[in-house]
Structure prediction request, 908 residues.
Amino acid sequence: MSDRAIEITGLVKIFEDDARGTVRAVDGVDLDVDRGEIVGLLGVNGAGKTTTLRILATVLEPTSGTARILGHDIRKEPGEVRRLIGYYSSTTALYPRLTAGETLEFFARINGYPSSGVRRRVEEVVGALDMGGFVDTRVEKLSQGMKQKVSIGRTVVHDPAVLIFDEPTSGLDVLNAHEMLGMISGFRKTGHAVIYSTHIMAEAERLCDRIAIIHSGRILACGTPPDLRERTGAASLEDAFVSLVAPGREASW
Amino acid sequence: MNVLGQEVRTLFRFEILSLLRDRRTILVSIVLPALLMPFMLSAGRWMEQRRHAAILQTSYLVGICGPEAALADSLTRQALASPVSGDSIHVDICAPGVMNLSQLNSGLIDVLVGVFPSATGRQRTIRLFFLGDDEGASAAASAMAGRFQALRDSTRASMLAATGVAYVPDQSYVTLDDISEPWRRQGATLGGFAVFFLLIFLLSGGAVAAIDTIAGERERGTLETLLASSASRAQIVEAKFLAILAVSAATGVAQLTSFTVCTYANVIPSAGLQSLRLTPWALLQALLLVASLSALVASAMLLVSGRASSVKDAQLRFFPVFLLLLLPGLAPAFPELTATFPFIIVPIGGAALCMREVLAGRADLMSVAAAALSDFALAGLLLLSASRALAAERMLAGMESWRRRTSPAAFPGAVLTIIAVMWAVTTIFSLQAASVDTRIQLAVNLLVILLAGTLLVRKRYGLSWSEHFHFVVPGLPEAVLAVPGAVSGALAGIGLFRLVSLVLPVPQAQMQAFADALLQQQVPRWQMLVFLSLLPGFCEELAFRGMLLGGLLRRMPSVLAVVVSALIFGFFHFSWFRMAPTAFLGLLLGSATVLSGSVVPAMIWHALNNALVIFTPPGIDLGAQPPWIYILSALVCAACLYGMRSAVRTRGERG
Prediction:
């Protein structure tokens, strides 16, 4: 069986906007992610990271091109694709009036997890993410760190093979961000394919096996952090990023 | 519930759980309305009783005025001395002396009585002056009028008795005998406003849930989470629809229970619920109507919530939708509207009319079914629309800035709405301007509504004449073929009209009225050519084959686009007997546009088609030709269209 979990081919997304006219938010993205691999999408705000991940999550439809998740086309089999992915975004939220446990049960069921095994699976996730202390507490009463665990829990509760994280540390304090990165890193060992977007260099360098630098909807370069540094002759990932995204504006200090 | 999939059941269960845990939802949508309605009704009755008691407890003053004050004073005192039965208003006469209107206006007295000569001068008239905006004074004046009348009757009786004639008080020789059963009368009365109140219950109950269910989710950021789950858009809409329906139904039941309990407990005035008689069959019909109305209201609210970008936006959108939904519920108040075709197929209005018939025990099953079906059908369409709105890209979190309402790419999605607005404006104008000169009507319809509307749309969406409207110079063969195409097409259309007339005969009077309005004898020929041939040829083609067909071709296959545009073209010609031939002409013109790649041949075709009908010599009756003429014409017409297609292909191959 192929290890390829995500195959993105010629992905294009065009928005029509009154003020800006036609905008190519994603402009021919090609990218692959294998099982057990964490690939980062690194780019500035408005580079096309979120749009790309929303298309992968079938929340948006591509204008052209496509992507396959474990062989399933996102355009032709969106239902099947959604069953195979776990999508976490900084803009997504939880239902405030459900408890942590009910939230996990809800997402397990609507994502098609077999009914008979839902309770056992919820217990597994609660144990794995150390949520026992607040499993029966309503989400609206949880702290930021607890909510974050519930969010991760609802992303993985139906046991998806592919995980999509869109700027998951956005808005988190240092400790919560650290804990979040630790949890995401753990998915490499469990054989999940992870695609992860961020604009924080250090985060990407520390977490990702490969990094794709995206700008104006295009992938400018893709490789391991040492590869990218070597290819651009830069001393750090940040310099490599600037030399690719804004040539001539590298730091002179 | 087993017919629903696991996803829908889960979504519904958690939706309801979430709603029930929101105390505000329960309080505002179920508890408050259930308490408020009886409270308002009983408070109204209490206030009415208090007002009546206050009138009875007050002593009102009568003053005397006019040229015969002494007589007025005497008559007033006599009238006050002999109160009539049922009159318990206390009235006193004020101190002797002639008074005037200024004292009435200043509130010193409540009623002014004067005796004046009548218009003929042979009799006298007692006039009572009072201020109608004072409820007590009105009641006192009314009581005094009754007493004067009673006094007049008794005086007349005494006078006649003195002459030996027995006086028989006024009798009614006309009697009204209502032979309908009381429960039917009560049913008809209740049924007149039952749907209106049901709509208020459903809307008040469902609105809070509806706002929370999509607009609230969008604002909280949970909608994107949901859209990325395995549940399809349709399943999400289905579950949310059921949740709103459940809350609406719960509110309706709570309201009805509260209303019934309060009626039986005599807290509120009886609305006659006790006297209603519903057979099981009538009850089933009533339930069918309630179910269809509930489905329609729930789907409308879901759509509003789905189209709103935030809770506040949803609240702003709900008010006009409330009015729009409540308005047809008042249909039974209009005596000219009956539970018959076509009124019964008007969503909500039809159900309201049928509900009155059901409660009065005279419902017709077919009408009830048709009314319910129209509500269910509209509910289905609204749900489809809600499903699309749910995933509208510009509505997703963080994407509000991506507006595409007026770009060329947005035009195909908006073209049907645009044409619907044009149709509505045309309809309203035609109804309002029925008595206006036909030339003015045509000029407004063609130049203002269709042409100016089309130009406005072109400017607003930034559309191109050639790309979007097919308004390009055609090849010579296509332009030339439009001439025989128009002649043969017109004859084929007339043949079709004859065929349709066999199934749906056209009333002769209607035909004559239409012909008279169009072909006015006094209109000069050149004006007929302009108004009935050239202007329609240009303006209608630019609007229907240019804008409408151009937009439809971008969202559906060519054949379907031509058919849809032709049907809409038919609907613009209001008389139903004109719809089929006009839609047929629309088919030919649409085909000519698609096959030639230009709207100009259709313009030539359309203008010639109309000119042929107008300028045919009186001796030739185009509608009375042998059938083979029509069949041959249809073949020639098809050949012309084929010729257009071939000409374009040949040029394409050469080029």
In short: The first helix of chain B runs from residue 6 to 20. The interface with chain A takes residues 6-7, 10-11, 14, 17-18, 21-22, 220-222, 224-232, 391, 393, 396-398, 401-410 of chain B (CB under 8 Å). Chain B has 22 helices and four strands. Confidence is low (pLDDT under 50) at residues 397-403 of chain B.
